[in-house]
Automatic annotation (TrEMBL):
Residues 51-212 form the LUD domain. It comes from Streptomyces pactum. This is Lactate utilization protein C. SUPFAM superfamilies: NagB/RpiA/CoA transferase-like (SSF100950). It holds the Pfam family LUD_dom. InterPro entries: FTHF_cligase-like_sf (IPR024185), LUD_dom (IPR003741), NagB/RpiA_transferase-like (IPR037171).
């Protein structure tokens, strides 16, 4: 008997006394918790997002939709980026003004190849104001998870207000549970036992978030 068969056998034994008409999990579990803390206008929710992003040491920029290509060009130029990873569904106009080599998100790309790329530009699935968190779900404008974890510089574009929610419960309602999700609260960082902070350990050392208003 394989390990898989033993595990599945234990699961079947554990479920043997569950009635056929037992309520499904989503109805059996009470979800009476607060869905958000306080009431805010849309503008206040966006301001809270910007504040919490900055608190996590992300750099926040704001622009109108038509200003995005020039802003991305300036951000990548200021970084000295000569190459940028491009997810397959990134709107082509976003990088129209960028003078850098496009590196396409390919299944065969290795970690060493991605590590040589200077920056990555993506969209996002949703942004959570109360926690200052950006969520990626691998959609075409975000690409595979690894392209946002290996390059040292990540520029993430958030559409305001459509992609901004107040709380984590509201964010979860927008996400497809079958898709892989990456939750980002600031640049990657860790601390040792003496609380010395080191950035860029598990992902990008620098996170820049662009809040784009339609």
């Amino acid at each position: 008997m394989s390990s898989r068969e033993r595990i599945l056998g234990r699961v079947r034994r554990a479920l043997a006394d569950v009635p056929d008409d037992d309520p499904p999990y989503e109805r059996a579990v009470t979800r009476g918790y607060a869905r958000e803390h306080g009431r805010r206008t849309v503008a206040e929710t966006v301001e809270l997002l910007a504040e919490n992003l900055a608190d996590y040491r992300a750099t926040v920029h704001r622009c109108a939709d038509g200003q995005l290509p020039d802003l991305l060009m300036r951000l990548l130029a200021a970084r000295g980026s000569r190459s940028v990873v491009v997810p397959p569904g990134l709107p082509p106009g976003w990088l129209a003004a960028v003078d850098a080599t496009r590196v396409h998100d390919r299944a065969e790309s290795t970690a060493h190849e991605l590590d040589r790329v200077d920056s990555v530009v993506t969209g996002c699935a949703v942004a959570v104001a109360e926690t200052g968190t950006i969520v990626l779900d691998g959609s075409p404008d975000q690409g595979r998870r690894r392209i946002t974890l290996v390059p040292d510089h990540h520029v993430c574009v958030v559409r305001v207000p459509d992609q901004v929610v107040s709380s984590v419960p509201q964010a979860l309602e927008r996400l497809d549970p079958s898709r892989p999700s990456t939750w980002i609260s600031g640049p990657s960082a860790t601390s040792d036992i003496e609380l010395d902070r080191v950035e860029g350990v598990h992902g990008p050392r620098t996170l820049e978030v662009v809040l784009v208003e339609d």
